Amino acid sequence: MFQVKRDFELGNKHEGIVIGLFDKPTKFEGELSSLDEAFDGQLTELVKSGDISAKLKAVSKIHSFNKIGSKRIWFVGLGKEKELTFDLLREALGKLFKELKVNKIEETAILLDSFLANGMDSLDAAHAISESFAMATYEFESYKQKSNEPEKRLESLSVYSNFTEPEELQASLTVGYAYGAGTNSARMLVNLPGNMLTATDMAEYAKELGSRFDFEVEILDKEDIEKLGMGAFLAVNQGSTEPPKMIVLKYQGKEEWKDVIGLVGKGITFDTGGYSIKTKTGIVGMKSDMGGAAAVLGAMEIIGELKPEQNVVAVIPSTDNMISGSAFKPDDVITSYSGKTIEVLNTDAEGRLVLADAVTYAKHHGAQFLVDVATLTGGVITALGLNTTGAMTNNEELFEQVLEAAIEAGEPIWRLPIFEKDKERVRNSKIADLNNSPGSEGHAIMAGAFIGEFAEGTPWVHLDIAGTATTTKEYELGPSGATGVMARTLALLVERFEPIGE
Ligand code: BES
Ligand code: ZN
Ligand code: ZN
Question: Fewer CB atoms near the end CB (10 Å): N or C, the chain?
Fold first, then answer.
């Protein structure tokens, strides 16, 4: 897909060439001056007239009229040199790749050095290119009847740069692509309807991922889960005809199984709310209630590709949350795998129940640092909106590492507190150790506080992606639907992870 090349020449034949342009003054200097000359200075004129725009994220196309070897030139507006960030570059490139896709371009060249400014080095730019290419051109294969016409897509991108060793650039392109592809796998899983992705299907998917990357795979089926006494997980599955699966993947990148990072993802394949049933509008879209599981699986794919020197255990409790004569009910008291008893006040607060047992199981597998990801509460949307993932923690240092990874991935997170008084509310039950729904005030925090009861003393960060796992609007790096959020953050966290307290 990506070919790294040196010494671009105007006569080189490509379907198109892509050039980054900075705003004011927009100059065709250095390598680009000969390009402007080939057009008798007309490119400068087109910039002046606004036909070629250097405004941030603008994409302009001109025909070359055979003045150079390539048929077309695509200009990517990068805005002010001093204001360009990695995030903005990724978005500007996302818009470019969307345009190339619409125009059915199969082959093109990109002059990487024209994108460098403001401390952006060629390796960062190469990463941005391949990651945004993968993400921006992602499309969910729908169930519409198709025409037989084969889709034209970008098959070959020649990346020209004179500043860095080609092998290093190639490596950066591979890494960026792995991040994008892992995100796309997460998106694909979230976009699958509940009837197409049951817990059993998700377990099969995890097994395949495991054999692709040589992960150790453990799938607990209903009997195993019963034997282990995971009463909270089982309660959520009780009304379903689909058996539950506890999915475990282990990646060992160190000699010894120590400093283990536990990634735990909520895998509810469809959430009806159970007897605390959702409304007819609120229920639509609940196929995405396994967004946390998808993020963890997407991250594991990236980890499998990049093989960092870390140890990771991924744990995914998967089931749907259904209603039937055998379903669990409000007022039921259940016993979790940890032994803590829970008074069920709301069957729609099922995510924290399955996560409680999964977090305990991750610890059983040696996890010393925990990050859970879940489409957990509507409350987080009320608190933070649709662009920001809610974060809660019991450990500042681990949180800092997650925050840094999230910033680098361009997936904003913001912290909500868990105070003693919050913990008291989840511990408030006359007949059990905990209750699963202390009321609607601050309920994103209540969900976090509940899971924290099972993390106990283990450093832990909780990420509530109810608002960010899907989007109704198309954006620079993807279509509407699943975003694959947190797959990249988790993978980056693992790549960069420094064990705490050493
Ligand atoms: N899966 C939902 C949370 C959710 C809401 C995800 C909107 C995506 C979009 C979760 O299981 C749930 O129903 N939470 C309840 C908790 C309440 C009963 C305490 C909620 O947020 O209303
Ligand atoms: Zn629910
Ligand atoms: Zn749910």
Answer: C
